[in-house]
Amino acid sequence: WIHRVVHGDEIFNDSAVVNDQVLAQIEDLAELAPLHNRANATGIRAFRAVLPDVVQVAVFDTAFHQTMPESAFLYSLPYAYYEKYRIRKYGFHGTSHKYVAMRAAELLGRPIEQLRLISCHLGNGASIAAIQGGRSIDTSMGFTPLAGVTMGTRSGNIDPALIPFIMEKTGKTAEEVLEVLNKESGLLGISGVSSDLRDIQVAAELERNKRAELALDIFASRIHKYIGSYAAKMASVDAIIFTAGIGEDP
Fold first, then answer.
1. 3-class DSSP state for residue 137?
2. Do 47 and 132 belong together in one domain?
3. Do 13 and 106 belong to one domain?
4. Average pLDDT of the chain?
5. Helix and strand tally (H, E) in the chain?
6. Which pLDDT band holds residue 250 (cuts at 50, 70, 90)?
7. Angstrom distance (rounded) from CA 150 to CA 123
8. Cα separation of 11 and 63, whole Å?
9. Range of the domain at 50
């Protein structure tokens, strides 16, 4: 039985058969993904209680991106923060990016080791990955899935100084501001219509809703930036892949 586990830190660079040690590590990593890893561990324990003899495998969202070089995954912060607190870019949607890269190589009829690919996982959550020779060399999401492109309800990249500024102006706590950035921003926050791109397209195209049009422009612009920068980083690109809800059904 396979479990998708969001965060594997630097411990897991591949899938792992779940044993007591792996389960304990998944639980220990909950501070890096509190909404997901605890739930993952609960599901694993429940499955084990009902079907104790069935092998369980944890597939980590972060594993594929463990091939990124330090120059891609480190933030320009004191290096001690990385050493002490594991603060770095981890990237997410790794299982999706890995699969579509392999599938693209099949469709192109070329060895994946020879390809330079840009994978665009576009759904309510969205991330872009640069994949060279079958290995992730950079990706848009960061320490958390909040970073990167504009998403359904997530802001994507912002100036970090905005957080204390918003706290001062609104009286919100840091946790409340993060709630806004995660659940009230992105396409929903800009358009005021919905987090669903289909609803926004209807509002923009049929109703001529200016904020919906703006949301579409911003969404596309942020994606274009990553595609352009990753193409430049790899000196060329053999294919651009679109997947997930929006990518598969634009």
1. strand
2. no
3. no
4. 95
5. 11, 7
6. low
7. 11
8. 9
9. 2-60
